[in-house]
Amino acid sequence: MSSETIKQEIQAGQTALGIELGSTRIKAVLIDSHFETIAAGSFTWENKFVDGIWTYPLKEVWQGLQSAYTELTNKIRAEYGVSVTQIGSIGVSAMMHGYLAFDKDGQQLVPFRTWRNNITGEAADQLTKLFNFNIPQRWSIAHLYQAILNQEKYVDQLDFMTTLAGYVTWQLSGEKVIGIGDASGMFPIDEQTHDYNAKMITQFESYTGVLGHNIKIRHLFPKVLLAGDRAGMLTAAGAKLLDATGTLQEGALMVPPEGDAGTGMTATNAVRKRTGNISAGTSAFAMVVLDKPLSQVHRDIDIVTTPDGAPVAMVHTNNCTSDINAWMGLFAEFAKATGQHLSADELYKTFFNESTKGDPDCGGVLNFSNVSGENITNIQEGRPLFVRTPNSNFTLANFIKAQLYSAFAPLKIGMDILTKKEHIHTDAMIAQGGIFRTPKIAQQVLADALDIPITLMANAGEGGPWGMAVLALYGLNNADHESLADYLDHQVFAQPESTTLDPVAANVQGFDDYIAVYQKALPVAVAAGDDIQDYQPSKQVKE
């Protein structure tokens, strides 16, 4: 598309804005009618561990959104010479699950409790038994029920609860709605009705009623919508929240807010049955769109949905790249101390490529990348560990390889349940995430870990906000009511750029050998969380 045509689409408001509030960055992407990125902006943020809770302050949500949006519009003004006054449609995505609770006046009752918290074990266990359906600790309903069990006084003031994407959409549009994929991380979804499971609602309300609470899920939770549904319009107040200059006008179509899993599926064209995708970042998750129900309840397998309501088996791990990023930061300091100034891409490329010289089983060195607790491996407190024996082959190559292996180790443990116990297979497994920016290295490790071919698309490094922008355009332009799967196949991914790597037998065996040692040593990682107190700088050190 020519620069002049793009300029005309910007001025006419024929664009779609995708927003994603991820674990480490808030991103905004504006796309044109051909799904091409016009401009993007981002804001870096980090969760904070405050009073035993992983959280983000909501005021930083709006600081970050405004910063990312300002960067985006500044780029457009510089390249095309126009201001963004109107947008065709807007979609908001964010980290799935978690807990945002508000009273009748819209006041936040407790700090945002993110997906990263492992504080709802008792509630999750009880609800799983009650529903005969796996309820993970990070799901919103587990947080609500744990608050009841903890006798937290605010519970009876609770008037509305939602996810982060649902909250931002509410503030931009005034509508208390949620996309079905994001909703499936709040409460179990009925595949037939495309709504919260009515039987389980009755079970929960009766269960909590015995405890003295009059909780009505349909009043408390946002309304469930499917991809393509209308979720309201951008209000004047909402436009001001995005664009503090007042340049952006109200009136953009809002589409159903989604979780990062839903945008990942969209960005990788993995919403059709027997397709799957893997997203690897601060956390990691694998999504497989099911063509048959699982034979039993598995505590390590979540059942969620695609943005259009198809059932998905999800393996979610709380930890993936954070430990690698921390080590790369340390090596960047070393490089700087020696007078070398390497970019992040240069640093990662150098180290990742070095890993290919390592032993298939990492030579007896072992890494646990648990910055936070990890449900799949039953680790309550995160204590990253690097362990070797006196006879380990301790080389830089094996050190880096062990970092990559441990990033995917919990994901492999969960995926083995699907592939080896449930015999679930996919026609395509597509990966995305920043760890794949260095060509082939992490892609090959993942293929070897799971023993399945892994495909990367050209947008593998930044799929989420673009995927949300695609959903926004789908809501704006799908007058023919084409299914989401057909829309992606025929219009978005008609000629996809992709590369596929097959597993290498020797490396598959090496990863299996590594994971056997890893699983046997898990009690060490558990004990580290139990016995090593989190570091708290003393007042003297701070001064």
From TrEMBL:
Where is each Carbohydrate kinase FGGY N-terminal domain found? 16-240
**Superkingdom in the source lineage:** Bacteria
Q: Which UniProt keywords apply?
A: Kinase, Transferase
Query: Where is each Carbohydrate kinase FGGY C-terminal domain found?
Result: 277-475
InterPro entries, alphabetized = ATPase_NBD, FGGY_C, FGGY_Carb_Kinase, FGGY_N
Listed GO MF terms: kinase activity
Secretion signal: which residues?
Answer: none
Pfam family membership, one: FGGY_N
Q: Which Gene3D superfamilies does this one have?
A: 3.30.420.40
Q: Which PANTHER family match?
A: SUGAR KINASE (PTHR43095), XYLULOSE KINASE (PTHR43095:SF5)
UniProt lists the family membership as follows: Belongs to the FGGY kinase family.
This protein is called what? Answer: FGGY-family carbohydrate kinase
